[in-house]
Structure formats: C-alpha cells, structure tokens
Amino acid sequence: MIYLNKKDLEEIGIDWSETVSNIEEAVRCLDKKDFSQPVKLYLRYKNLENRIIAMPAYVGGKFDVAGIKWIASFPSNITKGLPRAHSIVVLNKAETGEPLAVINTPLLSIIRTASVSGLIMKYYDEARKLKNFNLGIVGFGPIGQYHLKMAMSLFGDRINKVFLYDIRPIDKRIIDRKYTNKTIITKSWDDAYSDADIFITCTVSKERYIDKKPKTGSLHLNVSLRDYKIETFEYFKNAIFVDDWDEVCRENTDIELMHKNRGLEKENVKDITDIVCRNYLEKFERKDALMFNPMGMGAFDIAIAKHYCDESGKRGIEKNLK
Predict the structure, then answer these.
(1) What is the pLDDT of residue 41?
(2) What is the helix (H) or strand (E) element at residue 6, kind and residue range?
(3) Helix or strand or coil: residue 131?
(4) Are 162 and 179 spatial neighbours (Cβ–Cβ below 8 Å)?
(5) Closest CA to 116 of 205, 229, 200
(6) How far is CA 262 from the centre of its chain?
(7) Are 289 and 306 within one domain?
(8) Model confidence at 84, in pLDDT bands (50, 70, 90)?
(9) What contacts 294, CB < 8 A, 6 or more positions away?
(10) Are residues 79 and 224 in the same domain?
(11) What's the sign of the alpha-carbon dihedral 266, 242, 205, 237?
C-alpha cells in the first residue's frame, strides 16, 4: 500500500493545468453517472463549531478507484498555532476493495479545492474572454494562498491587480516575489471586493459580512460558503451555481439561507456538470454577476488522490506500507 505525506506531494509538485484537467475529467464522470457518492457525514461533539467529515466516493473513467476522505475542521485551531484542517485520504482498488494508498496531508484537499475553482475560472474565461482582469481574495490562510498560486499559474499574464484581505495582518513574505508588483493588501473586504472581476472567499468567518452589489459581470467563487448576507441574493439570483445541491443546501451555507429565506430551489440553479458539459456560463449576458458555491465533493478528492498516486509511481517516490 502506498503512503504519501505533505513532503511527498511537494516533491511531486503541483501542475495546476494537470490538476484542473483531472477535476474536469471527474466532472464528466459525474455527468455520465459513472460515480457513486453518498452525502457526506458530519461528526460533531463538545464544541459544535468543530466537525470531522467523512467523504466516501467512487469515480470511474480513467480513475476507476474508490476511497474516502476523513477531514477535521477546527476553526479555532488558528488561534493555537495549529492548522484549521487535518485530513487523510484512503484509496481502495475498485475491483477488489484492497487498500491502495493512504495520503496523509490536508494539502491534497487544498489542491482539490483550488483546482475546482480553477476549473470554474477556465470556463468563465472561455465565456467572457478575460483580459487584464482583477482578482480579489478574502481570507489568506492556506486555502487563500493556494488559490493565489493557482490563479497566477493559470492566468497570471492576464491578471492586472490582486487585492488581498484578511482580518489578521498578511505577512508579505509568504507572497511569491513574482506576484508582489501586482498585489495590493487592502484595509477592508470591500476594498478587495468592489473592483474584482473574480472574487474568492477563503475565510472561516462566523458572521456574514458581504452586503454590497458586485462588480458588473464578475465571478464569485464562494469557497467558504458563509460570507454573503442574504440581501445579496438579489444580485446573483439568476446566475447561481453549485457543485451539488443536496450537499450545499445544508449546514448553514449561504445557499441554505437563500433556500429558506428567498425561495431558492434546486430547479433555480445549475451545477458544475452544466458548466463543464453544457457550457452554461456562455448563456449569460456579460453584465450578469455569477456565483459558484462548492460544498466540496468526495469524488474530486478521490480523483486528485489517484493523480498523485500515479505520479508517485512514475517518479519512484512512493513509500509502501506492509
């Protein structure tokens, strides 16, 4: 059985074009119903803001592998000098169920999250033909940092400015020097939001705060899912997308509140298969602001885990557990 950790993934490296391509292929498996993915299970105890989530899935196609991600999210860890998230992925051979690999690092989940965003950005770019656009990121922990890496890798030559905001001071030293001439650390979320053509939430905010009209035609990647006040529904109501409605319409997400308080229903939204397999972003006028809400799908974690297992074999760096 293969064992990989953070150091191994860093040695393999992140080819964002490749990871986005793997997510895209996994989406096509979803569209073909060549997958199995039960609704994820949340385990809570004592402090109920914490949770440990079980995310099992099977993905067919070129992946043809089953597995499960077991991820702990403890938001207050950041005040203790600990990572917010800890996760482990176990892969099983599809034909026999034999354990194939263990990947013990939250970096895999971070790569999956940013790669899903990269895929949506790719199709937004195809629909809008982006040139000299501005990127805004609110929340600059690991998820925000890797979103910046992904965006600059895939679109850096066309990004005009990057606006960054976090409630805690951002250490400029963690920003790649290649990006610093384009990067502006703002004093408020509004400063990062108002002129962003693509705006990404990567926070662990306990309270919703975004209440302003978005920039005309902008794309909003609501990665942290709980940042937009309910009144912003009016700005996005005709162009809301999700990865999976049944997953995202719960757990106090913005989508759940829009469902309960503004009558948003499953038939009013499109999902990630509509974006990738039916080019749905091209159906909107350039003035329309778009919002994508990804709860996170186990199928995508399994696809990225399989990618890294395959790459470790090619490079001869995997460690076998007996």
Answers:
(1) 96
(2) helix 6-12
(3) coil
(4) yes
(5) 200
(6) 25
(7) no
(8) confident
(9) 113, 116, 117, 221, 222, 223, 225, 242, 243, 248, 272
(10) no
(11) negative
139 and 197 share a domain? yes
In this prediction, residue 212 carries a pLDDT of: 97
Angle at 111 (CA atoms; ends 45, 86), nearest 5 degrees: 25
- Domain span at residue 76? 2-109+298-320
What is the length of the chain?
A: 322
Say which CATH number the domain at 31 has: 3.30.1780.10
Other Cβ atoms less than 10 A from the Cβ of 184: the count is: 14
| pLDDT at 278 > cutoff 90 | yes
SS3 86: strand
pTM of the model: 0.96
Which H or E run contains 301? helix 298-315
DSSP per position, 169-227: PP-GGGS-TTTGGGEEE-SSHHHHHTT-SEEEE----SS--B-SPPPTT-EEE-TTS--
Domain total of the chain:
2
Backbone angles phi, psi at 23, to 5 degrees: -65, -40
| Chain CA centroid to CA 31, Å | 19
Q: Is pLDDT of 118 > 80? A: yes
